[in-house]
Design a protein that fits this description.
This protein has one domain: P-loop containing nucleotide triphosphate hydrolases (Rossmann fold). It is α/β, with parallel strands linked by helices. Helices cover 24% and strands 28% of the residues. It has a seven-stranded mixed sheet, with helices on one face. It binds adenosine-5'-diphosphate and magnesium ion. Adenosine-5'-diphosphate (ADP) binds next to helix 1 and helix 2.
Length: 143
């Protein structure tokens, strides 16, 4: 599976996230990839809205994981500050990879090897005109 989208504005990115939220099932894991400011959290916000979550969604950079209650639970992680898999396991992070909710992970590179089969990779690239090209695949990317 490989799909590509062009999001010209933050609103379009939020809408894309919402569309994925509408399709998401229990146990869905989404790895959000892309540089700082690419739009990973904007995508997560859109997805949360599809689950009926109205709280503000910000990158849980300091808390590492944030849990939200919607029609399904949403677990939003930002592993930017995590240095190794062992720390993730010590935090009990593995449970969220096989959960009854939707798990969204920013900066998942550090636990790449642990991501379950079926993980959806959302790769966001910033274009020169500030639009974003979003590649969605179920295969681990090489980039
Ligand atoms: N086309 C676009 N898609 C998504 N975000 C955009 C776009 N153009 C500008 N932005 C801005 O880029 C920023 C993305 O921030 P954020 O989602 O927090 O990034 P990340 O979580 O990837 O670090 C937001 O301030 C958003 O308004
Ligand atoms: Mg973020």
């Amino acid at each position: 599976m490989r799909e590509e989208y062009l999001c010209r504005t933050p609103e379009e990115m939020e809408n894309l996230g919402r569309q994925f939220g509408e399709k998401a099932k229990k146990g869905t894991v989404i790895s959000l990839r892309g540089s700082l400011g690419a739009g990973k959290t904007v995508f997560a916000r859109g997805l949360s809205r599809a689950l009926g979550i109205t709280e503000s969604i910000v990158s849980p950079t300091f808390t590492l994981i944030q849990e939200y209650d919607g029609t399904l639970k949403m677990y939003h992680m930002d592993l930017y500050r995590l240095s190794c898999e062992e720390d993730f396991i010590a935090l009990g992070g593995e449970d969220f990879l096989y959960s009854d909710g939707i798990c969204l992970i920013e900066w998942s590179e550090v636990i790449d090897e642990m991501l379950p089969k079926g993980t959806i990779y959302v790769n966001i690239k910033i274009n020169e005109d500030q639009s974003r090209t979003v590649e969605v695949t179920d295969e681990r990317s090489r980039s």
